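Figure 2 data, in text form.
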Amino acid sequence: MRYPKVAIGVGLVLALGAAVGAEQRGTVTLELPPISGISKALRFTAPWQPEGSAGTRILGSVIDSSQTPVAKVKVRLRNITTGEVMAEAVSDENGEYTFAEVEPGMYVVEMFIDNRYIVALSNAGSIARFETLQTVIQLPGRWDSATQTVVPVQSAANFMGMSAATTMTAATLTTATTQEIPTSDQGVLTSPQ
């Protein structure tokens, strides 16, 4: 009876000894008897899922610059490799969203308005089968839900009426000292002269 031939590496050949067969370019061909009990029509219908896993999914939240959750805004899942939008969702009352049954790949979540304007992006990430990817979309300002806009954070340095002495940087102070321009408040000396 002739059995199917199987190629194995040279390391196994040395372990099996010379009775195994002739060496052919680093591999040896063996004739092995068939394994009983396995059907030739064996097919896998689905990938193996580890016990207790929740499936492949992407979770996340939308927050503004003050760390406040942004509720009831549209988000969409984009495959970075293909550029294709895979799914859309709406954040809940806590600013959270979930994309379940995601195929493995590289993704980013976008917050958008009017089906045209991307307001902010999450961290990008790669996900394998039966993993969970955690994302966060952080807006560049405070979210105004009434107008559906991001209100930029005002810098104190841009505020008109603030004295130059309180907004000077170290370089500006050095320049002012060189030109003998006094500050409005001398303060307390912290180092000896």
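Caption note: Residues 75 and 111 are 4 Å apart (CA to CA).
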